[in-house]
Amino acid sequence: MIVFEWQGRVVVDCVGTFEMTSSENFDAYLQAVSVGTVTRKLANTSRPPTVEVAVDGEEWTIRTVTAFNTVELVFTSGVEFTEKTMDGRTSATTITVERDRLVQVQRVDGVEARTTWTFAPDGGLSMVHTAGDATATRAFRRL
Questions:
Q1: Residue 8: what pLDDT?
Q2: 93, 81 in Cβ contact below 8 A?
Q3: For residue 142, which of 20, 115, 123, 134 is within the disulfide window of CB 3.0 to 4.6 Å?
Q4: pLDDT beneath 50, residues of the chain
Q5: End-to-end distance of the chain based on CA atoms, in angstroms?
Q6: In sequence order, what DSSP letters do the residues of the chain get, joined into one string?
């Protein structure tokens, strides 16, 4: 297992580029967070997204690249920031770094959504998205 130290804690290696290998129930999750039909169809049919994670001191960067959009999140763990979502809405977002995961909480248009990014010792990444009664799971492999 590759680990690194961040703020005095040992953290699983989450720096790198990851490509999605599977996605389950993502359309239901997007519907739960009020994403429009056309955007949902694009999100579900475009080439698999890639996620790039980088750390520079206290600042984390997550860049998600899809066929129709690229979103970059720059944040400090536990500090709320304003995020522009993939579909162009504004969200109050907080991402907290834990030992082997990042926990993202978004509040947009009166809906709270949570994404837990878990980094596996084998280099894989799983993302579990929840909003209301919808839960989606996406798996990624390190490139």
A1: 62
A2: yes
A3: 123
A4: 1-3
A5: 16
A6: --EEEETTEEEE---EEEEEEEEESHHHHHHHTT--HHHHHHHHHSSPPEEEEEEETTEEEEEEE-SS-EEEEEEETT--EEEE-TTS-EEEEEEEE-SSEEEEEEEETTEEEEEEEEE-TTS-EEEEEEETTEEEEEEEEE-
